[in-house]
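hey team, just a heads up i'm posting the complex here instead of the shared drive bc the drive is being weird again. everything in one block, sequence lines first with there labels, then the predicted structure for the whole assembly after. its six chains so it's a bit long, scroll down
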Amino acid sequence: MKIEYPGIVPEEQMPRFSGRPSFMKLPWWGKDMDVSVAVIGVPFDGGTTFQSGARMGPWAIRQASWGLYPYSRVHRISLADARLADAGDLRVVPMSVPDTLMLVEHQLGAFPGGTRFLALGGDHSVTLGLLRDVVRRRGPVGLIHFDAHSDLWDELWGQRYNHATVFRRAWEEGLILPDRTIQVGIRGSLDHPDEDGEADRLGILQVSTDTWLSQGTRTTIHQIRNRVGRGPVYLSVDLDVVDPAYAPGTGTPEAGGPSSHMLLSVLRGLAGLSFVGADVVELAPPLDPTIASGLVAATVAQEALFLLTLAP
Amino acid sequence: MKIEYPGIVPEEQMPRFSGRPSFMKLPWWGKDMDVSVAVIGVPFDGGTTFQSGARMGPWAIRQASWGLYPYSRVHRISLADARLADAGDLRVVPMSVPDTLMLVEHQLGAFPGGTRFLALGGDHSVTLGLLRDVVRRRGPVGLIHFDAHSDLWDELWGQRYNHATVFRRAWEEGLILPDRTIQVGIRGSLDHPDEDGEADRLGILQVSTDTWLSQGTRTTIHQIRNRVGRGPVYLSVDLDVVDPAYAPGTGTPEAGGPSSHMLLSVLRGLAGLSFVGADVVELAPPLDPTIASGLVAATVAQEALFLLTLAP
Amino acid sequence: MKIEYPGIVPEEQMPRFSGRPSFMKLPWWGKDMDVSVAVIGVPFDGGTTFQSGARMGPWAIRQASWGLYPYSRVHRISLADARLADAGDLRVVPMSVPDTLMLVEHQLGAFPGGTRFLALGGDHSVTLGLLRDVVRRRGPVGLIHFDAHSDLWDELWGQRYNHATVFRRAWEEGLILPDRTIQVGIRGSLDHPDEDGEADRLGILQVSTDTWLSQGTRTTIHQIRNRVGRGPVYLSVDLDVVDPAYAPGTGTPEAGGPSSHMLLSVLRGLAGLSFVGADVVELAPPLDPTIASGLVAATVAQEALFLLTLAP
Amino acid sequence: MKIEYPGIVPEEQMPRFSGRPSFMKLPWWGKDMDVSVAVIGVPFDGGTTFQSGARMGPWAIRQASWGLYPYSRVHRISLADARLADAGDLRVVPMSVPDTLMLVEHQLGAFPGGTRFLALGGDHSVTLGLLRDVVRRRGPVGLIHFDAHSDLWDELWGQRYNHATVFRRAWEEGLILPDRTIQVGIRGSLDHPDEDGEADRLGILQVSTDTWLSQGTRTTIHQIRNRVGRGPVYLSVDLDVVDPAYAPGTGTPEAGGPSSHMLLSVLRGLAGLSFVGADVVELAPPLDPTIASGLVAATVAQEALFLLTLAP
Amino acid sequence: MKIEYPGIVPEEQMPRFSGRPSFMKLPWWGKDMDVSVAVIGVPFDGGTTFQSGARMGPWAIRQASWGLYPYSRVHRISLADARLADAGDLRVVPMSVPDTLMLVEHQLGAFPGGTRFLALGGDHSVTLGLLRDVVRRRGPVGLIHFDAHSDLWDELWGQRYNHATVFRRAWEEGLILPDRTIQVGIRGSLDHPDEDGEADRLGILQVSTDTWLSQGTRTTIHQIRNRVGRGPVYLSVDLDVVDPAYAPGTGTPEAGGPSSHMLLSVLRGLAGLSFVGADVVELAPPLDPTIASGLVAATVAQEALFLLTLAP
Amino acid sequence: MKIEYPGIVPEEQMPRFSGRPSFMKLPWWGKDMDVSVAVIGVPFDGGTTFQSGARMGPWAIRQASWGLYPYSRVHRISLADARLADAGDLRVVPMSVPDTLMLVEHQLGAFPGGTRFLALGGDHSVTLGLLRDVVRRRGPVGLIHFDAHSDLWDELWGQRYNHATVFRRAWEEGLILPDRTIQVGIRGSLDHPDEDGEADRLGILQVSTDTWLSQGTRTTIHQIRNRVGRGPVYLSVDLDVVDPAYAPGTGTPEAGGPSSHMLLSVLRGLAGLSFVGADVVELAPPLDPTIASGLVAATVAQEALFLLTLAP
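-- predicted structure starts here --
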């Protein structure tokens, strides 16, 4: 007999600001549950290179998600009809990126083979652990990466594993297929001119914020869909892709970004792609005293659930 | 002899951050004044279903309005030439929606018949009391409703009177004319698929945020003007219609909304319609430590004063 | 088979800022569990007469409690050895005090007879529902009430059920035994001189903040213990009893109060009394951007768990 | 006929968080009113030498005062029985201390001779203008000055009129009687050793925070009463006298101060002295996102009203 | 021998959140350095007419700039190749606009003739002192002025020198050439209808926010470039030109503004103009608890450095 | 020729909120300077086990220190007469405690042998690196440790180097002399009963917060002085030793602590002990939107400078 939630009355009767504190008030995951997508928190900020705080991200995203509902006007489906669950947080070692990456991969191995994940970060370094699990299950994947930064540095202060090097490592490990990889929203100044052409050299396509905002939603959607094609694809959204007006609560904010509406509009145009996993990372709750940053993260995460559910 | 304001020197000589704390530093209303539009606060949040705090809204809107001036570059008129006054707050009963609605309607009855109101909320449930007074004076009205949510639920937790049901009640009571009613800015996820077509079934026209942002300001203005026509019309603006980046200080924020410039631009295109009343609701001051949310509410309220003043 | 928590690894291995979000990371309660004390949230602020926000209290207290540990240096016992669980939130009706009181009492009836509760508020009006359940199970009780306000008003704005009348109602309903009741920390200005002697007229003993601070911890402990004696006693702590420096996040703060150390010291001196229930109320999270107010509430709640566990 | 307040229903029926926004909800002052004490705001921060923001002080103190009531348990009198009014704000010139001082003095001259004032600052430089008016009416006065700083500098950056020189100027102008002047709560580091003995050289008695906290409330009260005697005395409270934990919202906070309870306790011991005026200054609202700093200022101001009312 | 920075290891090895706290981590300026552009802070808010706080601006902009890098993807140059330095703050007299203007001009005179400045405000009144120095060195200049307000008032409260009159004074003193002057982003309500045509009467071109947003980035860039031509031009950016969602931390915010992306895009289109000086003013750090406002100011200042570096 | 500060005018003429941003506006350290005490920042939070953010501590302490002056009324000396300098920040590796400890020790080695340090943290793990340098120079030391927590854990999540194990490591490495070590302010709940006697078993004396507050300042000073005697002693102050009301901006706050006045009073009683180094750690600036926490840290650091200067 299961005891999913410590509630006297059914969750449905509770005001949304109370009751089960899971993401979107999904049922808790249990070891014998058959779920199509599991939401997991990865409360880690040991790979952060500027402002810390992302370790508090998962619960803040969950709390901000309580006011979100299961039915999408755009996709015309309800998450209530999917087999979803919130599996709580993964164990991390706050002071070690490599140990945490191993732990992340190891813990995900405890889920049945067909389970897909929506991970709530945590800083971007955790994506490497997530990708390793995805690729172990399904082979190398395409990547749709929304971010103000390309995260393609080779190392920083002699450290090869951190949130600025994650996709360089993923590329080196063969986890992502460069010709099916696209980075959207890149902007901001660079340390060296060389960085400007780096994605190109790695065979990765970049769409800058300027390009995105000038070409518009529709063209950007087509560009992404063309790039990733029909194969398995992973979605990684760094919250700092949106302008700091929309999400000041992130460790490396970059002025001059798109609105959350622009991001959500593009995401909604990606339905039908073969998403095999997704993450929403870099919410640092102490850096925003309002709910706004968390709400963007939660709404993006909700959209990711729709995309995962709609994937063939 | 009147003592409008406790000031040693005329209000005009005071720095705007000091002196009379009324909305836009309007004169206080007095029982023998003949005003065309009275500004009133309705400090109530007993109808709130998610985050509370809107009871503190009226004074926060007033404070945020101190830096606003009477002359509009767009409309080329000055509110200094209209007969306007701030009539303070209405009495409410914080723990009862029905009692508050009765009180609101009753107190408004104390004003001369021709007075029109700009109400500063308070949560959206108070609009029902305001509409009852408007309709008592002038008969059923058209409605221009800016909001992220349609507020057309039938009940919640067995409660028929709250901020999520206000326009369902107004429709049932015959206060609004569905074929002259338009809801603009609706977005966000739904609890049940049925909600999606509900406005349609009630004969109410909805313009989603997506439609608004893709069709642009001019088309949206035409759409609204066509819908409401020449008859008397009420304006109700829920602050959550704008994106949480612009107004995080609201109880049920919804990511992915328009900017305040888009909202103000549409409002400015509505001059000349027969506005008989207006409200700006759902500012919850404790939820935004900056002046930003209050300033949007105050600027929208200022625009509503222009619209009321310009109404034939 | 139980699924207490959605965790891949045992809760004990998780960093304290992650994992199970229950109060002090207690196990979730389940219907077949035999617990000595159940922690319950009562997320309600419909009885608030000044600043709202306490409906968000329960989860904020839980989150602030994650850094608290089970062993007390003072009492030399560990809560790990007691049968404790977090039973989640009770259902409330945000816009009705009477309905919520009935619901509170009704839901508590679902627990086995011997279960005692530590309730996390919510505004103080919920204490009436809690007391009704306690008294139904065990008969009238003594009361130790820490608060800046006596909450003995008869009504406010015609409303008899709210957070300012809760102990008047409890007295009228015979739930508390006046000669075993003591109110500690009362301070602040009054609306009418009559209020000053009201507790006296009802046979209730009051210890003002001034008296408390001048007579000190030890005397105050003796005074309380003498007053309540050996019979069953209920503990109700309104967070506003401490100075707003320690807990600004409360709806009706009152300057000039004791420190949290003074409050905790007195509480720690009450071990061995026959506590049959307890609540910690009036944390309004939106009113304090730091963790401080929540941490006081959580630490007081932890102390209440020690007192309930140590009760004969 | 007077129109004191723009209210449809009597102020007494309004919830305290709504209605007339005056200090403690006092009636507004009008030119024909006979008041014993007038509350006035002086919204000026042009004399600030560290962090600015005090110009927003008066309305923030008023707002924080709404939850305060007229009857004092300590003094056993009600302000409802005194003739008090809120006269709004004085006009200031934000960019000129000398002009503002002249304006302050000039505007106070508009009140009948017997009117006494409780001024809400504003930075401490405004006290010089207030004292000039007091002394013009009643001759030189004794001074009870609570502050972390002695404000006895001769000049700063070549500027002789600012909040760090105010009592040097008052001394030079003969406004205060040194042998009836006492400064309480002085603490913090100094720029030059010479400053340490400066009060002494001017014949002014200083009680440091250390002395105050070690000798206790009772002795401090005696010390003050002995110093100022029976003659007319002015009370000036700089909010930074209390510890920044109690009032972080002030321009020159100084760690290691007394609690607000200690300050209020001493103030309550001063009843019966011949107070002829008072001010509470240096609340800088933008520097504290909570109500706490404003509440200390408001409660001190309330106590000042009791003292002014109880003065022979 | 120079001691530019108190660092044990070279600045380049330090994490960006640590080390030298200069703007963008530029070297500190020293008296014998030959720099093309010097960054200077002007920590003054004595000319502010609404909310104060801008005196804390310079260090807040510096701190927000630490995450910015020297290479621009747009301009394809690196500031590392220019001779730039941070010369710290200018001395100001917080309580006097005229004295501060004289000091600003005087101190700038200490730099070699060819030095150009990027000034970090401070309120807008300091621009007058900066312009006087620029004009003394190079003669009257064209002006590109981004602001929500025209700052063309003649006086306020009898004060001729403040942040609302700065460009009226500059015009009167012949510092700016009206036919090469353009104000961009003007919006908001006015006190008197006359203000509307004032720029016109002075021969200054204004582009309102409405015009800007409807005509788009490219047209606006052309309009500016055509207006100012090839002669020497000064850039002055008031942070309040962007919407308060992007920068609530400013003294006179005005709703309905452009995004920071729109502002940055226009600025990036101005490369090649003959910029002889620039300022970014009106950041008031206490009014925004997040980094967002400071980050917009810092990114605009970084762009100004590119423009100054690229000027012929 | 030295260029200590990028200032046009001497630092002494600058308002304290401007100019050189060093700790207490001390001169910057340069390689050829002979200083008695160097202030250094250690911007590291990779050893944090609960809330992160302490990496931003050093500059926040510096900024909060600008209003502090060099002369102490208590000690009657001026820091202006000592040879002090701010040496900026040490290089750290944000994602590795062991690497950072080595770097800390290594960099300190670059200073002349007689230099003593006041370190501004950073989390408490950095103290181990600091102690290693101290002991290398002078041999094992006594320790005065103010903290809510004993930091004597052996490991956490398999990690032996973090802020909870720092004094266990120091003890093991023989850096501190147990019989000359005292921990003051310890409080809060424990994970296991065994922890309670751990200090005892290691030969370290603990004074709990309860003992401290009940025995008072004078006794506590004597207790500390007796314990550490005349030999070299290191001072380590974890900001969380004070109550969260005084310093909410810290990663592991613990309710029920002493005031900042109590802490400062004890520190002031330690003059004359042979201090050879000191640190003030665990300020996490993002967790307190006010200056209060930083000001406590800065004032404690200032007091540490007095103690280091007064050491024989």
